[in-house]
Design a protein that fits this description.
Helix content: over 70%
Distance between the termini: 40 Å
Structural class: mainly alpha
Length: about 170
Amino acid sequence: ALAGCSATLRATTDLSRGGPGEAPATAARDAAPDSAAARDEATQLVIGEIALERGDCRAAAETYVKAAQRSSDTRLASRAAEVALSCEQFPLARQAAARWRALEPNSGNADLAAAIIALKRYDLVEARAALTEWRDSGAAGNQDPLRFAELLQRETDATAAYRVFGDVLASSTS
């Protein structure tokens, strides 16, 4: 389950970059080890990665989301959303996406991740709101619509996902 869902969010964040997602522990490597907070963050990321390696998805998601809540690093919030979504820990993924959006309010990728997480939770109202913010951020114009369509096809209820996406796009032309 981890590989398939991880590809969904990683592909989401790659839509505007066009490249592979960032390495899992990049934030830990970049954290300055001279402060207690940075050491704690780095420790949490290592614990999260070890949990992933051992197949303990829930612990990994909890650890990443907890670290993201304490950090101002958008990469960490993005990774926390990716891990939680990959592990199908949708409430945690929602928290991580909310943190990412709070840290980077004009990020189309954060809005799109929030929309995908909302679709996974069958929350069409929240998905529509996040997709509207994504569209209004201007990020929609920088992303390949065919890659986004591929992401929508991965949804359990692809028809509902397409309907929400179509509604959002149609409302921009009215």
